[in-house]
Amino acid sequence: MRKPIIAGNWKMHKTTLEAINLVNALKRELYNLENVDIVVCPPFTLLNEISEIIQESNIGLGGQDLFWEGEGAFTGEVSAKMLKDVGCSYVIIGHSERRKYFGETDETVNKKLRAALKEELIPIVCIGESLEQREEGKTFDIVKEQIVQGFKDLSAEEILKVIIAYEPIWAIGTGRTATPEQAEEVHRFIRQQISEIYNEEIASLIRIQYGGSVKVENIEELIKQEDIDGALVGGASLEADSFVEIVKRVNQ
Ligand code: PGA
């Protein structure tokens, strides 16, 4: 069975003190949960601090992005090795905000994905359509393209290490969640694509998270869906109460 995974994407939020308070509360409230993988993805500036706090806890650490080169003159960038060095086991790749504001493409996603896998980081790769694309009936085409190009030339062994996050762009930060049926429909499609490119067994093993306005009120309906294996949570991961409650509901 696929173990569900809940990851908190803090985006560009939290100073050191705020982050310490939040993660201490998570540690206190979530320490005995075993049926769910828990990850927090703070901004780069906080990774070191948080890494020390969550040592020997059941909370994993992830970066929100990386650069594909190992090292060099790339001002402002952070490598997979640096994330690993500071205690990360995960990294978000290709979030729609990075695609929209920082020019990321399926090609750069593919390069970042390889760099992450090389350092044995678990990539959380985000895919999903815009509202316009959905309304034009292009959701499946877009998602398929993102899979084919983004995961290009990945071996079976490599793809098994990847977590896919389906995040319809129109549901991110808008309060407008996809219905469980809408989300499940695309999750099932994604699994089918993986089955076609690789095989059925791999498709049945790969974990696919849903993301986009996930909150306490909708997590249970979402997680009940057969092909939804967890969530990538933005806004609701910034407060201990809501993130704890989401994780607990999934753990049950
Ligand atoms: P949201 O963000 O939960 O605030 O919609 C999700 C995400 O962007 O990963």
Overview of the structural elements:
The protein is of the alpha/beta class and 252 residues long. The mean pLDDT is 97. Strands 1-2-3-4-5-6-7-8 form an 8-stranded parallel β-barrel, surrounded by 7 helices. The longest helix is centred in the last third of the chain and has 18 residues, at 180-197. Helix 3 links the parallel strand 3 (59-63) and strand 4 (90-93). The chain is built from 12 helices and 8 strands. It has a single domain (5-251), classed as Alpha-Beta Barrel (TIM Barrel). 2-phosphoglycolic acid is lined by residues 9, 167, 172-173, 211-214, 232-236.
Condensed summary:
The chain is an alpha/beta fold and 252 residues long. It has helices spanning 16-30, 47-53, 80-85, 96-101, 106-118, 131-135, 139-150, 156-159, 180-197, 200-205, 216-223, 240-251; strands spanning 5-9, 37-41, 59-63, 90-93, 122-127, 163-166, 207-211, 230-233.
Q: How many structural domains can be distinguished in the coordinates?
A: 1
Please give the CATH architecture: Alpha-Beta Barrel
How much strand? 15-25%
Q: Which ligands, by name, code or SMILES, are bound?
A: 2-phosphoglycolic acid
CATH fold title: TIM Barrel
**Integer average pLDDT:** 97
Total beta-strand segments: 8
State the fourth-level CATH superfamily: Aldolase class I
Number of continuous helical runs: 12
The CATH C-level name is Alpha Beta
- Basic shape: globular
Largest sheet: 8 strands, parallel, barrel
Strand order of the largest sheet: 1-2-3-4-5-6-7-8
**What is the N-to-C succession of helices and strands?**
EHEHEHEHHEHHHEHHEHEH
Radius of gyration from the CA trace? 17 Å
Helicity, in percent? 40-55%
User: Unreliable runs, pLDDT <50, ≥5 residues?
Assistant: none
Report how far apart the termini are.
Answer: 15 Å
Classify the secondary structure makeup into a structural class.
Answer: alpha/beta
